[in-house]
Write a structure and sequence with these properties.
This protein has two domains: about 1-45 and about 100-205, Ribosomal Protein L4, Chain: A; about 50-90, no CATH class. The chain has a six-stranded mixed β-sheet with strand order 2-1-3-6-4-5, covered by helices on one side. It contains seven helices and six strands. The chain is elongated and about 95 Å long. The chain is an alpha/beta fold. α2 packs across α3 and α4 (about 135-145) packs across α5 (about 160-170).
Length: about 210
């Protein structure tokens, strides 16, 4: 399929970008998307959560009362979980949440996510551009021209541009990444995607 390529002033350039159907036009696989997003979020977790059990609580180990004759239950330690400040039973312990997925499944998930965005008319192509200096106001003007400002937008660059990244850093709804960093989560988490011309060619090249 073809998409019109816009200029940064919001007008059409008269050119069109050819989007490969094997990347942008497949039948989306929801389960692949689910697994890839789940892996991405799991891999972000530090897994350092920890609570103290009764062997780690700093309390006296003295027996609280006689074994018999107290008229109630037998208590051997104030570290027991039934007391305030006692050790926690079956509390969380540090562990690794990450898991692996094979490359073809992750690729299928990315292409499925991109295909969903194409079906929703949520992809805009723009000409390659650069910024001489970090200027957030200028970047906002570009987004306004493309009618995507105020929405969760993912801007994908063919290569790293420090000035464009710095211009967008203070905009909480805008995420600027390179084609190397693109993943299923960032695609699905955005309401709209702005692809800079050249990204589609890199994706096709890497599919081979």
């Amino acid at each position: 399929m073809k998409l019109a390529i816009y200029k940064i002033d919001g007008t059409t350039s008269g050119k069109e970008a050819l989007l490969d159907d094997s990347i942008f036009g497949i039948e989306p696989n929801d389960h692949a998307i689910y697994l890839d997003v789940k892996q991405f979020l799991a891999n972000q977790r530090q897994g350092t959560h920890k609570t103290k059990d009764r062997s780690e609580v700093a309390y006296s180990t003295k027996k609280m009362g006689k074994q018999k004759g107290g008229g109630g239950a037998r208590h051997g330690s104030i570290k027991s979980n039934i007391y305030v400040g006692g050790g926690r039973v079956f509390g969380p312990k540090p562990h690794d949440y990450s898991f692996k997925l094979n490359k073809k499944l992750k690729q299928l998930a990315r292409y499925s996510a991109l295909s969903y965005k194409v079906k929703d008319n949520a992809i805009t192509m723009i000409e390659s551009f650069s910024m001489e200096a970090p200027k957030t106001k200028e970047f906002i003007k570009i987004l306004d021209n493309l009618k995507v400002n105020g929405r969760k937008t993912l801007v994908v660059l063919p290569e790293n541009s420090n000035n464009i990244y710095l211009s967008s850093r203070n905009l909480p709804e805008i995420n600027v990444i390179t084609v190397d960093e693109i993943n299923t989560y960032t695609i699905m988490n955005a309401n709209h995607i702005v692809l800079v011309d050249g990204v589609q060619d890199i994706l096709v090249e890497r599919r081979k």
